[in-house]
């Protein structure tokens, strides 16, 4: 842990710079270096890693929100790599980063949306933290259809990669069922398609709950929707 913290302290200074025309390239290079530092694999002692990234989380959020796509992408790549290295230990950082990444999916720049979506899915797949579903639920009714679509695709990814015993927990089951109802009734056709796919995946995992908690009318409405590929 001490070795990581010492390396981090040496490398973090560029990312602390205020972004400007003169400094953004230095900041970009700083994130490139931090990304390489995190690529060593799983962290044996995550406490120091978490503390280090907590200390610069505002700078990271500022970077991912940058209109400079190279800088934003580099910061998102660091978060994806960090999540992969920490796994479930990423939990204390969820509240610091995931809402900002989801908000980024509402941008008009397609490159930014694609990178932010990739980061969201990477966090889901590498950490498999059940608490992620709560954040997806918060953004499931956002005004932005691209944010809602990423929330739906993220929910589908959760069903495909989470451990079934986690999904069977009562609070998570209720959350997923509420998300299904939201997505299959969305005004956007693409989101409704993903909502149907979530439904069928959930039905395979928990068929008894589907029978108990979903009305016939909802099942009939789902049957009329084309399945997302």
Outline the structure in words.
It contains 14 helices and no strands. It has a domain at 2-129: Alpha Horseshoe (Leucine-rich Repeat Variant), CATH 1.25.10.10. It has helices at residues 2-11, 24-38, 46-54, 57-64, 69-86, 91-104, 110-127, 132-138, 145-161, 164-167, 170-184, 189-205, 207-213, 216-223. It starts with a helix and ends in a 6-residue tail after the last helix. Helices cover 73% and strands 0% of the residues. By secondary structure, it is mainly alpha-helical. The model has no long low-confidence stretch (mean pLDDT 90).
Quick description:
The protein starts with a helix and ends in a 6-residue tail after the last helix. The chain has a domain of 128 residues: Leucine-rich Repeat Variant, CATH 1.25.10.
Features:
229 residues; globular; Leucine-rich Repeat Variant; 14 helices; mainly alpha
């Amino acid at each position: 842990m001490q070795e990581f913290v010492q390396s981090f302290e040496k490398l973090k200074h560029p990312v602390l710079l205020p972004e400007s025309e003169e400094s953004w390239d230095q900041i970009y290079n700083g994130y490139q270096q931090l990304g390489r530092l995190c690529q060593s694999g799983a962290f044996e002692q995550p406490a120091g890693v978490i503390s280090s990234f907590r200390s610069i989380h505002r700078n990271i959020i500022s970077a991912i929100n940058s209109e400079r796509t190279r800088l934003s992408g580099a910061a998102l790549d660091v978060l994806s790599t960090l999540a992969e290295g920490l796994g479930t230990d990423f939990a204390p950082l969820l509240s610091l980063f995931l809402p900002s990444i989801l908000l980024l999916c509402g941008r008009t720049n397609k490159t930014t949306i694609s990178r932010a979506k990739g980061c969201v899915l990477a966090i889901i797949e590498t950490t498999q933290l059940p608490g992620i579903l709560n954040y997806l639920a918060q953004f499931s009714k956002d005004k932005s259809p691209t944010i809602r679509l990423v929330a739906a695709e993220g929910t589908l990814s959760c069903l495909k990669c989470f451990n079934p015993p986690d999904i069977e927990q009562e609070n998570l089951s209720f959350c997923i069922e509420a998300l299904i109802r939201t997505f299959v009734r969305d005004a956007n056709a693409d989101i409704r398609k993903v909502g149907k796919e979530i439904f069928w995946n959930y039905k395979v995992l928990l068929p008894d709950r589907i029978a108990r908690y979903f009305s016939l009318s909802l099942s009939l409405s789902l049957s009329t929707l084309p399945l997302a590929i």
